[in-house]
Amino acid sequence: QVQLQESGPGLVKPSQTLSLTCTVSGDSISSGDYYWSWIRQPPGKGLEWIGYISRSGSAYYNPSLKSRVTVSIDTSRNQFFLRVTSVTVADTAVYFCARALFRGYQLLNFDYWGPGILVTVSS
Amino acid sequence: IQLTQSPSFLSASVGDRVTITCRASQGIRSYLAWYQQKPGKAPKLLIYSAFTLQSGVPSRFSGSGSGTEFTLTISSLQPEDFATYYCQQVNNYPLTFGGGTKVEI
């Protein structure tokens, strides 16, 4: 059973950098046709895809955040990471990591999710 | 691609048949997924590729549609089904979600 777990600071000051880690267990992050994704959800609101990365390091981002976001991966530690620079209060959200399942070149779904971590941007 | 879910809120009773609609602003073939989210929890995958039931999901959940109009149907609502449901398109970047449908008692 694949499990994902987010970790990182729960409080970040405005203009600083938000950094999160997702640790994958139950399977190798290098195996299979998967991309490793970040999604966020502001309190009381809907879901927003941030970006994802393949095991080889190919990354795709939501243009709404692209200039401030970096997703990276460390296959030796079975972890992937999110960095968001120059944060504002609008970046306050629950951040989820998830596994994105591909069949060939076609993305099908996000089949496994971490429980999420609340990150608050406040001075 | 914008996804518009309707209704945004739905009041229903145990045993009811419930249908939620998701409309895409342009065609997405059959590349639509449905998720269920309960308060304080991560979304759970229910259906992908418009109508394929994820392993372990009860058969009272079903999906249909293609192109721009899709539906999620719960044939007989159970107490554990009261939650918020989201559609997601995976045909084009950026990947997008609908605004959600909250199913309440």
SSE map:
The complex is a heterodimer of chains A (123) and B (105).
Chain A: E1 3-7, E2 11-12, E3 18-25, E4 34-41, E5 48-54, E6 59-61, E7 69-74, E8 79-84, E9 93-103, E10 106-113, E11 117-121
Parallel strand pairs in A: 2-11
Antiparallel strand pairs in A: 1-3, 3-8, 4-5, 4-9, 5-6, 7-8, 9-10, 9-11
Chain B: E1 3-6, E2 9-11, E3 18-24, E4 32-37, E5 44-48, E6 52-53, E7 61-66, E8 69-74, E9 84-89, E10 96-97, E11 101-104
Could you walk me through the main structural features you see in this protein, from its secondary elements to its overall organization?
- The complex is a heterodimer of chains A (123) and B (105).
- Chain A is 0% helix and 56% strand.
- Chain A contains no helices and eleven strands.
- Chain A has strands at residues 3-7, 11-12, 18-25, 34-41, 48-54, 59-61, 69-74, 79-84, 93-103, 106-113, 117-121.
- In chain A, the strands form two sheets. In chain A, strands 2, 4, 5, 6, 9, 10 and 11 form a seven-stranded mixed β-sheet that branches. In chain A, strands 1-3-8-7 form a four-stranded antiparallel β-sheet, with no helix packed on it.
- Chain B has 105 residues and is mainly β.
- In chain B, the strands form two sheets. In chain B, strands 2, 4, 5, 6, 9, 10 and 11 form a seven-stranded mixed β-sheet that branches. Chain B has a four-stranded antiparallel β-sheet with strand order 1-3-8-7, with no helix packed on it.
- In chain B, 35% of the residues are buried.
- At the A-B interface, strand 10 of A face strand 5 and strand 10 of B.
